[in-house]
Amino acid sequence: MMKQITHEELMRLAAEARDHSYSPYSHYRVGAALLTKDGTVYQGCNIENASFTPTICAERTAFFKAIYDGVRDFAAIAIIGSGELPAFPCGVCRQVMSEFCGGDFVIIVSNRDGSEVVTETLDQMMPHRFGPKDLL
Ligand code: THU
Predict the structure, then answer these.
(1) Which residues' Cβ are closer than 6 Å to ligand 1?
(2) Is the CATH number 3.40.50.300 carried by domain 7-125?
(3) Is 84 a catalytic residue?
(4) Atom 4 (ligand 1): residue with closest C-alpha?
(5) 58 and 79 in contact (C-beta within 8 Å)?
(6) Helices H, strands E: what count in the chain?
(7) Catalytic residue among 8, 9, 48, 59, which?
(8) pLDDT tens across 9-18, in order?
(9) Single pTM value for the model
(10) Radius of gyration, CA atoms only, the chain
(11) What would the pLDDT profile of 45-82 be if each residue is shown by its tens digit?
(12) What is the largest CA-CA distance in the chain?
């Protein structure tokens, strides 16, 4: 039986993940909590680098932890930043979501204090995306 988790609880786990952020250059702290279809949650944070380009976003940290574990079925992700605006995922992270998620994958984004929360599907956030289907 799948463990139930609310969007609020998933966002709380994203905020917990944000505490792990390594972001000495941008000082923009991001946390993500990725919910698998069997109810497991993978947390991730952004990890920056003095050489800048090796920086990885919180969302991809969470996805790659899950992919390494062999998980391929995802239900939702909560993302929280440290700015005034909700932390919408960057294009690269949306592309990674496109690889592993269906159009009904739920993306919940929040600003730093949770006063603004937006919930959309991957279809809404990245229409006409390139993905595995295009290589058939
Ligand atoms: N960042 C994320 O973690 N997720 C996003 O979707 C956008 C950007 C991080 C990367 C970098 O450490 C900092 O935010 C500023 O770009």
Answers:
(1) 23, 26, 28, 30, 46, 48, 55, 57-59, 89-90, 93
(2) no
(3) no
(4) 57
(5) yes
(6) 4, 5
(7) 59
(8) 999 999 999 9
(9) 0.97
(10) 14
(11) 999 999 999 999 999 999 999 999 999 999 999 999 99
(12) 45
Give the integer Cα–Cα distance in Å for 56 and 73. Answer: 22
For residue 56, the ligand 1 atom closest to its alpha carbon is 10
Q: Kindly state the average pLDDT of the residues 101-106.
A: 98
Residues near 96 by Cβ (< 8 Å), separated by ≥ 6?
59, 60, 63
- For residue 33, the CA-to-ligand 1 centroid distance in Å is 15
Q: Which atom of ligand 1 is nearest to the CA of 93?
A: 6
d(CA 94, CA 2): 26
Instruction: Identify the CA nearest to 30 among candidates 116, 113, 112.
Output: 112
d(CA 69, CA 45): 17
Under the banding of pLDDT at 50, 70 and 90, the label for residue 1 is: very low
Tell me the β-bridge partners of 108: 78, 119
Written as six digits, the tokens of 73 are 């079925």
Chain centroid to Cα 122, Å, comes to 11
